[in-house]
Amino acid sequence: MAVDLRPEPAVAELARRTAEFVREVVVPVEEQHHGVARTEDIRTDLQRRAKAAGVFAPHVGVGFGGHGLDMRGRAAVFEEAGYSLLGPLALNIAAPDEGNMHLLEAIATDQQRDRYLRPLAAGEVRSCFAMTEPAPGAGSDPSALTTRAERVAGGWRIDGRKWFITGADGAAFTICMARTSGEPGAQGGATMFLVDGDNPGLKTVRHIDTLDESLYGGHIELLFEDCVVTDDAVLGEVDQGFRYAQVRLGPARMTHCMRWLGLARRAQDIATERAAQRHLFGSRLGELGMVQQMIADNEIDIAASRGLILQACWELDQGGSASQATSIAKTFCAEAVWRVVDRALQICGSLGVSGDILLGRFLREVRPFRIYDGPSETHRWAIARRVLRRHDKAATR
Amino acid sequence: MAVDLRPEPAVAELARRTAEFVREVVVPVEEQHHGVARTEDIRTDLQRRAKAAGVFAPHVGVGFGGHGLDMRGRAAVFEEAGYSLLGPLALNIAAPDEGNMHLLEAIATDQQRDRYLRPLAAGEVRSCFAMTEPAPGAGSDPSALTTRAERVAGGWRIDGRKWFITGADGAAFTICMARTSGEPGAQGGATMFLVDGDNPGLKTVRHIDTLDESLYGGHIELLFEDCVVTDDAVLGEVDQGFRYAQVRLGPARMTHCMRWLGLARRAQDIATERAAQRHLFGSRLGELGMVQQMIADNEIDIAASRGLILQACWELDQGGSASQATSIAKTFCAEAVWRVVDRALQICGSLGVSGDILLGRFLREVRPFRIYDGPSETHRWAIARRVLRRHDKAATR
Amino acid sequence: MAVDLRPEPAVAELARRTAEFVREVVVPVEEQHHGVARTEDIRTDLQRRAKAAGVFAPHVGVGFGGHGLDMRGRAAVFEEAGYSLLGPLALNIAAPDEGNMHLLEAIATDQQRDRYLRPLAAGEVRSCFAMTEPAPGAGSDPSALTTRAERVAGGWRIDGRKWFITGADGAAFTICMARTSGEPGAQGGATMFLVDGDNPGLKTVRHIDTLDESLYGGHIELLFEDCVVTDDAVLGEVDQGFRYAQVRLGPARMTHCMRWLGLARRAQDIATERAAQRHLFGSRLGELGMVQQMIADNEIDIAASRGLILQACWELDQGGSASQATSIAKTFCAEAVWRVVDRALQICGSLGVSGDILLGRFLREVRPFRIYDGPSETHRWAIARRVLRRHDKAATR
Amino acid sequence: MAVDLRPEPAVAELARRTAEFVREVVVPVEEQHHGVARTEDIRTDLQRRAKAAGVFAPHVGVGFGGHGLDMRGRAAVFEEAGYSLLGPLALNIAAPDEGNMHLLEAIATDQQRDRYLRPLAAGEVRSCFAMTEPAPGAGSDPSALTTRAERVAGGWRIDGRKWFITGADGAAFTICMARTSGEPGAQGGATMFLVDGDNPGLKTVRHIDTLDESLYGGHIELLFEDCVVTDDAVLGEVDQGFRYAQVRLGPARMTHCMRWLGLARRAQDIATERAAQRHLFGSRLGELGMVQQMIADNEIDIAASRGLILQACWELDQGGSASQATSIAKTFCAEAVWRVVDRALQICGSLGVSGDILLGRFLREVRPFRIYDGPSETHRWAIARRVLRRHDKAATR
C-alpha cells in the first residue's frame, strides 16, 4: 500500500520483450530505411512480426487482441517501443491510431467498435483524427473550430477544411470534429463523426511537406465538402465533442511523450557509443568534461521526463482529468527530448549531421513535438492559469 | 501491486498535519526573524510546539520517539517541513542532525545510541558531521582526506583541519571522518569517530561567514589537534568510514532536496500571491505572458524535482545504493530550486529584492546547495562515468 | 572614416590609469570592508585619492572639474572603475550621482548648475533621484506616476511617496519627479523638481533592507508631504519631466552596464585565479572541461556585453534616443553579468559562498540589476513592440 | 579618431544595394527552389544578375573584379547577402570558394592567381578545400592529420581520405592539406596543394547525406590515391600549411557568421510577419507575452552577434590573429543563430514546421554550424585555455 514504482511483473515482462523485439527486429529495418517506412509492405511485415513476438497492440483490450495495459503499463512498454522510430508502427501504437483506439474503446457503440475498432486494433486498416484547422481555425485554441456539421435528413452534412491530419493518406476512416452549435470563438458544441475514407465529400488537398517525415500516412490537408454521413456516424453524443476530445487528448499526450522518451534514450545510446569509441586530444571523447556534461544532462532529462510521465499516468488511471499533470509532462518532455537529441548529435560531431547515423533524422522528427499537441507556450499559459485559479480559490476561502 | 504514487494514509496524514503546523506555527516565527533562528530559545520553543503537534522527529524510529518514516515517507513530510526555512529545525530534521540520526540508527552500537542518538532525537542536544576539509583536502574528492587518526593506548589521536562543518557551534558531539590508512589521494581507509564537544583537542577556529545563514549553528572551521578519543568512540568499524559515508550521503542528499523543494513551493506561492494582487499595464501581473511563463516553469521544475526525489527514495528503500538516482535528483533539484526562487524574486520586482518579503533571503540560502553535498559538476561527472561504464559493460558482454 | 573600435589615445590612457588606480588603491579598501563603504570617511578618502591620481569625475565637463568623456569614452573608463564595487564611488561616477550630473549638465540653468552641479561634481555633496513609487505607482510603467505637484503662490507643493530612492540618506538634494498634469495611468505631464535635503516636507520613512548593499546612501523610502518648493526649483520646463527622464535614463542605463561589466571581469579574474591554483582529481581545476566551459562562457558573455554597450553608446553619441539599443544592451548585460558572477562563484566552490572572497557579495549586488532600471521583462516587451511597430510601418509603405 | 561604428559610405551603399538585390532577385528564386540550388543554371543565372547589379564578388580585390572589402566591410555586406540561403552563391561569396579566394589572394604566386583565382573570382569555376578527415584523422584536432604527401620526382604524391569536403562535386580544383613531416598526433608540418579536379588520383567516394543541403556542390568524401602533382602545385611554402590554415580559418570563420547572421534576421522577419498577422485568443500573436519574449530574445541575439563579429573583424583588419575574438564570435553566433531560427519556427507553429515557409529548411541548414568550423566545445576549450594562459603569464610577471 506504500508508494511503489515497480511495474507489475506481467507489465515488466512485456516491456522487456518489447525492448528485445525493437532492438532485434525493428532497429535493423529502421536503419535500412533511414527511419521512415514509406510502404505498406514494411508496415504489415513489421506488424506481423510484432504479433509473432506477442508484443502487438499492448494498449487495446484483450477482447480486441491486446494486452489491456492501463496508462502506467503503457508508460513502461511504449517507451521501449519508441526506442526506434518504427517501433510504434510495428506494435500498432503509433499516432493517431493508438489514440483513436483509446477513444473508440471508451465511447463508441458496440456496432461502431465492431466496424471500426476491431480492424484497426488488428492493424488491418489505419485511421486519422481530423481536428486541427488552418489559421484562423481550431489549433491552440479549440474554440476557434470552424468546420461545421449541419443536420440533413437521416444524418449530417460536414463542411470545412482541416490540416496537419496525420495518417490521413490511406486511412480507412477519419474521426472528424465539427461544430454543431455556437460560433467560432465561443466554445459552443462540437460533435465527433466517423467518416469513411471513401466518402465522396472527403478530399485530400495535399501532403504537407514537413520537417518530420516518420509518421506513417503523412500530414495531410483535407477538405470536407458536402460530406454527408448517416446518424450512426456520430461518435458518442451530439455536442459533446469537446469533452470527448479531452478523453483522447490527455492520454494521447502522454503516449506521445512515452514514445519520444524512448527515442531520447536511443539518441543517448548512440552518443554514448560514439563517446566510448572516439578518441580526441588523447582521451576518450566520453572522458572530456564538456562531453560528460552533455551525457549527464541527457541522463537527467530522461529521468525527469519519465517521472513526470508516470505522475500524469497515475493520475489518469485514478480517473482524473490530470490536465495539469499532462500539460507539465508534455511541455517538459517535448523540450527535454529535443535537448537530448540535440546534445547527442553535438557529441557525434560531423558524423551526427550526416545520414550515416540517424540523429539528424531524429532531430527532424522530434522538433515538431514542441508544437504538435499544443505548443509549449499554450501549455505554459494553461499551467499558469491553473496556478492562479488555485490561488484565487484558496484566497476566497 | 501495480505502480502506486499515493502515500500510505498515515504518511499522508502526517504530511497534512506538518503542512498545517508549518503554516500556522513556524511561518510566523520565520517571518519575525527574517528566516534565521539565532537563539536556543527560538529553537527549543519551536521544537516544543512541534512535539505538541505530534509532528516531531518523523524520520527516527518509534523507539526513539519518532514516526519511523522510510525515505518515501520522508519525501512527503520533509517537503512540507521545508516550506519554511525554520520548519526542519522545528521538526528536528534539519541538516546535519537529521543525517546523523539516520547514520547512528544504522550503524551505532546500542551504547552509542543511548548516549548520542537518544538525546539528539529528542532535540536535547545538537551534533555535527566533520568531513569536508579546506583545499587540498577532502571536498568533491573524498579520497583527498588529510585528517588522520593514529592509534594510541586505549584509543586514537586525531589531527586535522575541517571546514564548512555545519552546526558545529554548540554541538554536543561531532562525527569526525579521519584517515586511518593510506595516503591522501589514494582511497585507503577512513574511520568515523564520535568526538564529544568538550574534548580539549577539538577547537573552533572560526565561524565562516557565508551567503547562507539559516542553518542553525553556522558553518564552522574546526581544528582537531592532539584530539584523543577512546576506543568506544569508533563508529562502526575501523577503515570502513568511506562506506558508512555512503550510508549517510545518499539519504542526506535526498532529504536536502525534499526540504529545499518545500522552500521552492513557498517561493512559488509568494510569487503567485504577488502576481494575483499586483496590476501592471492594465492587467493582473499574473496574466502577462512572460510572468505566466515564469509561473509555469516553476510549476514544471517543482513537479520534475518531486518525481526525481521519489524515484531515488524508492530505490533507497529497496536497499540499493541508488547512487545514480540520487546524483541525478540532487543535481536537478539544486538547480531547479535555484531557478524557482530566482524567478519568484523576479516576478516580485523591487519588492522581491527587499527584506519586506523573504525571497532575497531564500535566494541566499539555496545558492550554496548547488555546491554543498557535491557540486553539480562533480555529480555530472559521476553520472556520465556511470553511463559510460554501463556502456562498456554491455559492450563486452 | 572606416569603422574603428580603438578609443582615442587620451581615453585609452585615462582608462589605463583608472584600471591601475582601482587595482592598487580601491581593491584593498574594498576587500577590507567586504565591498560596502559605510562611512563618509571611506568615501571622502577614496575620492581624495582619485583626485590625486587624476581619474576623478571623468564624465563631467572640464568646466566642472572632469574629463568631459562622451558615452563611448565612459564605456572604456567606467568598466575599469567597476572592477571594484567601490571604484565608481571613488571616481564619483556611482549611481545616482553620476546620472544626476549628466542630467543637470544637460538641462539645468546656470544658477542651478552652480548651486547643485558644482558641489556634486566635486564630491562635496551627494544627491538622489526620486522617481520610483511603491505599487501601484510609477515603476515599470512610468505613466502610473501618483506623486503630485500643485501650484501654490511662488512655487509648488509636492505630495507623494517614493521608494527605492538610492543614495537618499544624506543626500544634499533630490531630483523629484511629480505629476503636474493628467491622471495616473494616462501619460499626462510630469515635472522635475530640485528639492533640498533639509526641506521640512521631505521625510525619510525608512531604509529598505535589500539584497544589495553597496550603493552608498542605501535604498530609501521617502515621503513628500506638503513639501513646498519655489519656482526656481523646477528643473527644465514644467510638464516635460517624462522627456527629461529619457535624457537621463538611456545614458544611466548604459553606465550601469559599464560598471557591472567591470565587476563581471573581476569575478572572472577571481575564478580564473582559483582555477589556476586549485587541483582536483589530479588536474588543475581550470583544465577540467566543465570548468573550462564556465570560463569560456564568461569570456563570451563579457565580450558580447561590451559590444552591445558600445553600440548603444555610439548611437547615444550620435544624438539619437537609442532606446532599442539601450534596452537590448541593458537586458543582455544584466543577465550576462549575473551569469558570469554565478559561474565564477560555482568555480570557487565552498570558498565562493564564503566571505573569504567577495563573490557572494558580488552575487547579491548584481541580482537586483535585472530588476532595477526596468526589469528584463519590461525591456523585452518594449523591444518586441518596437520590432512589431517597425514591421507594421514597413508593411503599410 | 574616436570609436566609430558607421561603415564608410561606399560600403554602406554596397550593403544597401546588396540588400535590395537579395530581396528582389534572390529571395524569389530561393523560395521557388525551397532554399537549395541544385543546378548550374540557377547558379550562373543568379551570378549573372549579381554582376549586372554591381554586387558581385565584393570581397575580392579590384584587380580580380571585386570591391576589395576588408573584413569590416564584409561584415556589412555579407550579412545582407546571407538574408537568403542563395544570396552568398549569387554574390560568389559562399563557402568554400570565398575562403579559397581569400587564401589565394594572400599567399598564391602570380601564376597560381592567374590560373586559379581569376576564374574562381569570376564565377567561371568552383573550388573546394580538403582538410577534414574521418576519425581518427584531422577534425577538431588538426594535428591528427593523416593524409600524407611524399616527394616524388618533380613533385609530390598525395595519399589519404578526406570527408565533409564542401563543394567538391564539380570543383575545378581542390586545395588539399597534407602532412609533409611529422606523425599524426604531433603537429609536424603540413603543406597545401592545388589539385586539379581532373587529376586521376583524386576520387569522389560519395556524397554524404547531411542535415543541411544548401551548400552548392554538397559535402563529399574524397580519396587521394597515388595523386601526383607537380612542384608548382604547392601553395605557399612546404610545411607551412598549418600556418596558412590560420590565414584562411579566422576570416572564413567570420564570413560564415556574417552569412548566417543574415539568415537569422530573415527568420526573425518571417516570424515577425506571422506574429503581426495571426490572431490567437483575441490578440495579435505578437502581443502575447511569450511571443514577445521570443521576438525580443531574437533581437538581442542578433545584435550581440553583430557586435562580436565586428570586434573580431576589426582585430583581423589590424593584422592580428584575432584567434580569441574569432573563437568567441563563432561560438556565440553559431548558437545564437540556431536559437533565433528555432524561436522563429516556434512562433510560426505548425506552419513553421511545414514546407510552406522556409524555417524548417533554415533550421536544418544552421544546425551543423555549431559543429562545422570547430564545434562549440572545441572553441570553448580554446577560449578557456587562452584565459588561463593569460593568467599564468600575468602571475609570473
From TrEMBL, chains A, B, C, D:
<comment type="subunit">
    <text>Homodimer.</text>
</comment>
<keyword id="KW-0285">Flavoprotein</keyword>
<dbReference type="InterPro" id="IPR036250">
    <property type="entry name" value="AcylCo_DH-like_C"/>
</dbReference>
<dbReference type="InterPro" id="IPR006091">
    <property type="entry name" value="Acyl-CoA_Oxase/DH_mid-dom"/>
</dbReference>
<dbReference type="InterPro" id="IPR009075">
    <property type="entry name" value="AcylCo_DH/oxidase_C"/>
</dbReference>
<feature type="domain" description="Acyl-CoA dehydrogenase/oxidase C-terminal">
    <location>
        <begin position="239"/>
        <end position="388"/>
    </location>
</feature>
<dbReference type="Pfam" id="PF02771">
    <property type="entry name" value="Acyl-CoA_dh_N"/>
</dbReference>
<dbReference type="GO" id="GO:0003995">
    <property type="term" value="F:acyl-CoA dehydrogenase activity"/>
</dbReference>
<keyword id="KW-0274">FAD</keyword>
<dbReference type="GO" id="GO:0050660">
    <property type="term" value="F:flavin adenine dinucleotide binding"/>
</dbReference>
<feature type="domain" description="Acyl-CoA oxidase/dehydrogenase middle">
    <location>
        <begin position="128"/>
        <end position="208"/>
    </location>
</feature>
<dbReference type="Pfam" id="PF02770">
    <property type="entry name" value="Acyl-CoA_dh_M"/>
</dbReference>
<dbReference type="InterPro" id="IPR050741">
    <property type="entry name" value="Acyl-CoA_dehydrogenase"/>
</dbReference>
<dbReference type="InterPro" id="IPR009100">
    <property type="entry name" value="AcylCoA_DH/oxidase_NM_dom_sf"/>
</dbReference>
<feature type="domain" description="Acyl-CoA dehydrogenase/oxidase N-terminal">
    <location>
        <begin position="13"/>
        <end position="124"/>
    </location>
</feature>
<dbReference type="InterPro" id="IPR013786">
    <property type="entry name" value="AcylCoA_DH/ox_N"/>
</dbReference>
<dbReference type="Pfam" id="PF00441">
    <property type="entry name" value="Acyl-CoA_dh_1"/>
</dbReference>
<keyword id="KW-0560">Oxidoreductase</keyword>
<dbReference type="InterPro" id="IPR037069">
    <property type="entry name" value="AcylCoA_DH/ox_N_sf"/>
</dbReference>
<dbReference type="InterPro" id="IPR006089">
    <property type="entry name" value="Acyl-CoA_DH_CS"/>
</dbReference>
<protein>
    <submittedName>
        <fullName>Acyl-CoA dehydrogenase family protein</fullName>
    </submittedName>
</protein>
<comment type="similarity">
    <text>Belongs to the acyl-CoA dehydrogenase family.</text>
</comment>
<dbReference type="GO" id="GO:0005737">
    <property type="term" value="C:cytoplasm"/>
</dbReference>
<dbReference type="GO" id="GO:0033539">
    <property type="term" value="P:fatty acid beta-oxidation using acyl-CoA dehydrogenase"/>
</dbReference>
<dbReference type="InterPro" id="IPR046373">
    <property type="entry name" value="Acyl-CoA_Oxase/DH_mid-dom_sf"/>
</dbReference>
